[in-house]
Amino acid sequence: MQNGSGNMVNENTMKEIISRYPAEKRFSLAIMQDIQRKFNYIPREAMEAISEYLSIPLSKIYGMATFYKALSLNPKGKYVIKVCDGTACHIRSSMVIISELEKLLGIKVGEITPDGLFSIETVNCLGACALAPVMVINGEYYGKLTAQNIAGIIESYKEVKVQ
Ligand code: FES
Description:
This protein is of the alpha+beta class and 163 residues long. It has seven helices and four strands; from the N terminus they run H-H-H-H-E-H-H-E-E-E-H.
């Protein structure tokens, strides 16, 4: 089956993860955390399967997926790029950084690249305003960004993958 970004969601892998746990409601969060780790988000198909397996209404599963910060309803890339659009960064042209990233990766904020490598999000203040404009990629901070130095940063992540 296909998710919104065109990536395949492996149904067998999903079922295998779910069936590792006894069919008891108290394991719902643990199952969702495992699904999140595997797919980097909670596919709708997984929510349906968990709902059925644990006899929990789908609306409850959906509620959990939106409540817990560690869970995501949208596909995320292997590398999650969080661009700060807080006040300090905004004043220092974070919009230029965002549009440059969108151009480089061919996706918009909230989307994932077709190879599953990158997704872009915007956040409010990463607590490093002195370095504005700032972005974080999987916990790694990059400050004083310019439209020129972004391409090199993105390339370095592509190279990591090739190794
Ligand atoms: S506003 Fe961007 S780090 Fe604070």
